[in-house]
Amino acid sequence: xxxxxxxxxxxxxxxxxxxxxxxxxxxxxxxxxxxxxxxxxxxxxxxxxxxxxxxxxxxxxxxxxx
Length: 66
Known about the structure:
By secondary structure, the chain is mainly alpha-helical. The protein has helices at residues 14-20, 24-29, 40-56; strands at 2-3, 8-9. The protein is globular, with a radius of gyration of 12 Å. The protein starts with a strand and ends in a 10-residue tail after the last helix. The relative contact order is 0.17.
């Protein structure tokens, strides 16, 4: 989960580690590191939609992870 006010992670789960290979602790230490797992060809679009989600409170986007 991401706090859109300060862009900090406040919840991460074991499945995230299984999917991304990154520990939950690494996300807490560097909250914006989640951007690195978004496929480069999807990153601009996803981050743009995330920015919109800050305003709308809604985020429903499919993207590739690396």
